[in-house]
Design brief:
418 residues, alpha/beta, Rossmann fold, Alpha-Beta Plaits, 3 domains, five-stranded parallel beta sheet, 15 helices, 47% helix, flat
Amino acid sequence: MRQRLLVVEDSKPIATVIKQIAQSLKYEVVLATTLTQVEEILSGDTDFFAATIDYALPDAMDGEAIACVLSHGIPSVVMTGKMDDETRKKILAQPVIDYIPKENSQAFLYLKRVLHWQQTNSNNAILVVDDSSAARNHIVELLKRRNFTVFVANNGVQALAKLQQHKDIKMVITDLEMPEMDGITLTNEIRKKHSREQMAIIGISGAENGIHSARFIKNGADDFLRKPFCPEEFYCRITQNIESLNNIAQIQHAANTDYLTELSNRRSFFSNANQRIAEYTKRKVPYCLAVLDIDYFKKVNDTYGHDAGDHVLKALALYMRKHFGAGLTARLGGEEFAILLHGVDSDQLFNKLDDFRREISVSTLPAGDSQIAITVSIGVVFDSKDELSKQMNEADNALYLAKDNGRNQIVISGAEEE
């Protein structure tokens, strides 16, 4: 179901721009041009994910529409052409998401970012650590207004327990002065396990001594706020740090993912496979390493074209996810793929691989207007104690035997020697 946005705006050109922005983000837009229309709409329908509100309307020149919409619990962004200090304070005294001066085209680019954040912030979990319930609740209310997922702790000891319990926390906002463990010590402890690329830390303090900001930063914090802080500055700091984390995550994803199939790439596979194999060996969990290759893939490209070949590679990746969702799958390059699986025993693992091979052999894969039939050959190593590079070589050798023996089959490394 699409999220609904209430757009309160009497200027038709501006309303059109806001509607286009909202629709590009998949919002369903409901438009009102006067306070009377807003009241009529909300009298029977308050199911809105968010709202944008023009400060001055023909029948509500002094921001009356803001209070009306907020009274129904609808998160709201105020758009205003009137931007003196008194108006700004009046807007910020109300629980709005943000306000945006209608100064230039940048205002609408910023609006798009804000509306996007409202949709995505629930994926960003933040831990608020403060022994003062009033200060803690104030920060929580500001964060929930922006649709963040929020956890709380009274002190550093509780905070570390929360971080252990909730692995999805991306940011910690911590006060300095707390019993049991203060904010500086907490920051230090967090940084022992979580790098700046994994988690952001913002220190806060009401102390007059300016050295605290430097102490926080030197002990691993990313930012600092002095209480009492302005909500505008608070949101800017939070958003900047969350966006930085998300940008890093996107870069890391791109660096570790095959661009075409969205499977792991070769570098990522080797890194993760080494870690998993070490764990399987330590726990004595049966596992196998398989290398597979699409039979006669060059013929697919020559016959149907490279675009069709790309579609085949993507389709094969979907089959791999279906059959080996709990395993580690990767495209090593070209038409060669790798699979690392763990299970009950070697027979079960072999059957999983063979079920995959057989389903591919009886299926046709869509490629543009064509349906292409392919098969795969697989070489596999079971429970090897060798290092990963040697296991890959052994699986590769078994794969070549599978091709030499007629393709569309699995060969187990070492079986040919028995």
